[in-house]
Amino acid sequence: MNRIVAAATMLALSGAWTAANAENESGFYVGGGVGQFNVQIDDIDDTDEAIQRLDDDDTSWKAFVGYRFNPYLSLEAAYIDFGGPSDKIEGSGSSGDYRVEASGFAPYVIGTLPLGPVELFAKIGYYFYDVDLSVDLDDLGDDVIRSSSSEQDLLYGVGVGMTFFEHMHARLEYEQIDSDVVDDADAIWLSGAWRF
């Protein structure tokens, strides 16, 4: 008898979830997220090997809008500010500090696999951004090495999401930037979106 009650309860909950989300299978959404951006640079050319490796992280944020064509395919546009990871440098014969700042715009294509109330997704996009690197070596006095450029790089990631109260969608995601400017750059995001 308990198995019959449990099965009936699961069917009822599944039906309620399907009915609640049937009206929300496509349409616009808007959201934002906060995360942690990690950056690693193995060699900085302008320092003549005085600095071999920079590795740090900082808080990042993004705002995005998107359109879901169906439960499986979406297009999204995001403004992403990866913050400004900075740290002290202790190199061979040199010390000082550095800061890396990156922000820009990214369009994405997102593929989603709905699994009941949970969604698994993968995303791929292209990041158009400005990156500023400054290195201040103590033994050079007031001289600061600066590098500024506009870049375009592939951006991809995976994640998991869940919709609450019919329209509020929360997601946890990992994202990687395939960049020539830095050796390794990735982010972990916690985002929320309102699906209209």
Summarize the structure in words.
- With 196 residues, the chain is mostly beta strands.
- It has one domain (2-195): Beta Barrel (Porin).
- It contains one helix and nine strands.
- An eight-stranded antiparallel β-barrel has the order 1-2-3-5-6-7-8-9.
- The longest helix is centred in the N-terminal third of the chain and has 21 residues, at 2-22.
* Helix coverage percent: 10-25%
Please provide the ordered H/E string of secondary-structure elements: HEEEEEEEEE
Query: Per DSSP, what share of the residues sits in E-state strands of 2 or more residues?
Result: over 45%
The secondary-structure class comes to mainly beta
Global morphology: elongated
Largest sheet: 8 strands, antiparallel, barrel
Distance between the termini: 41 Å
- CATH topology group: Porin
Count the beta strands: 9
| Tally of helical runs | 1
User: What gyration radius follows from the Cα positions, in whole Å?
Assistant: 22 Å
**Spatial arrangement of strands, main beta sheet:** 1-2-3-5-6-7-8-9
CATH architecture: Beta Barrel
CATH class: Mainly Beta
Number of domains: 1
Labels describing this entry:
196 residues; mainly beta; Porin; 9 strands; 67% strand; elongated
Chain-wise SSE layout:
Layout: H1 2-22, E1 27-41, E2 54-70, E3 73-81, E4 86-90, E5 95-115, E6 118-137, E7 144-164, E8 168-178, E9 184-195
Antiparallel strand pairs: 1-2, 1-9, 2-3, 3-5, 4-5, 5-6, 6-7, 7-8, 8-9
